Amino acid sequence: MACSLSFDYEDGVVYTNMNLDSRFEGYKGVLHGGMIFGILDVLIWYSILMETRKICMTRKTEMEFLKPVLCYTPYRAEARVVAVEERDIIAFAWVQDAHGDHYAEVKAVFREAKGLDVAQFVHSFDFSQGTPDMKEFFYSLIPDVSEQ
User: Fold this and answer.
1) Helix (H/G/I), strand (E/B), else coil: 30
2) Kind of pairing, strands 8-10 and 13-18?
3) Quick one: pLDDT at residue 144?
4) Is residue 148 part of a domain?
5) How many CB atoms within 10 Å of residue 93?
6) H helical segments located in the chain
7) I need a labelling partner for 102 at 20 to 30 A (CA). Which of 36, 50, 79, 141 fits?
């Protein structure tokens, strides 16, 4: 059984609604911290691409677990770019419940990749889990390619 999260973008925020089962638990009924970090790291990467059209790599992160993120419970994970300082992009991501209470947060610095062609990178990347609007954006980064 596969688990997939679809990402969407609105008003400078990349987000996904998630409700993960016990296959991803660290402790009984609680999502593994590495899984939470991985989701937030990917959301930050997408938010940077959407906001700056740059391919960046994780340089430094600070993860804070505020409350247990429970299995079989709906949450929303979000990420946004906070600042651009030369080749460094500062971003923030979090997991929240329906009331807006934060359960986990990541503050991150990503570094723009040197010598990487954005169009070539995007052409070889799988954006199949993105929404139609996000796919359209990604394909717009590739010259002479129409949505398939």
Assistant:
1) strand
2) antiparallel
3) 66
4) no
5) 28
6) 33-52, 118-123, 132-140
7) 50
